[in-house]
Predict the structure of Glyoxylase-like metal-dependent hydrolase (Beta-lactamase superfamily II).
Amino acid sequence: MRLKFAAGDLTIHRIVEQETTFLPAHDMLPGLTPDVLAENRGWMQATGALDDSDTLILAFQSYVVKTPHHTILIDSCIGNDKPRPARPKWNMKTDDNYLRSLASAGFSVADIDYVMCTHLHVDHVGWNTRLENGRWVPTFPNARYVFDKAEFDYWTESNAKAEVPPFVDSVLPVVEAKRSEIVGHDFAIGDHARILPTPGHTPGHVAFAFGRGKDAAVFSGDLMHSPIQTHYPELSAKFDVDQTQAAKTRRGFLERYCDTDTLCCPAHFPSPSIGKIRRKGNGFVCETV
Ligand SMILES: [Zn+2]
């Protein structure tokens, strides 16, 4: 499994917590017809994106980007000790996959300068916090945690109507510990990291573009979940809050990076996850590098 990539003066590490079957393809992607699945089953199975019962295989991972100045962690996965009764593979987990994967990439939790969340879904905020003496504390003690304001406001409002457990156990404790930066779309870290708004999956979903002068790498979060969505950008996932907007954002993003040298780093594509966007027919492909 390839875990380390270079782009310009950046080094990118994949920190994999799980890579596993998730949901049946037709369930996750409601617009996927039996015919389109039949046409694509061969390459999807061969590349580890689909199992032999048509269930999608996804990676659940963070990326750590080492710039000349900072060590930045993007999306913090599932986490341990968190009650997630709807997802047995995530519920009250106690394995050491994640911290072991971070250590084998050469990082301790104290090394992370920034944690940046593309959005605030359960599998992108989990390791923001860990349980210590019955309290949720920031896992990365020296990090500033970057949350997009539109995204933070959306979940604040949802949580006021009905409690959103990952927001309560994995986002709010970071805010209470005064480690958060709630930022607008003009947020940047020096000339190396900036925000690219990519709404649809959630209202405040953002991608993060890295590299000086040009986008050497882009971290696209849940703008797409499975490689088949590059071939058919209009296929939205059932978890996309606004499926029409998500489809438009997805095509725009793929068009923007198509036939460039930018490394595209989606959150959930199966290993090796990272590729370059190339045109293919009326859609695109994320070509392994
Ligand atoms: Zn996700």
Q: What stands out?
A: The first strand starts at residue 4 and ends at 7. The two ends are 13 Å apart (CA to CA).
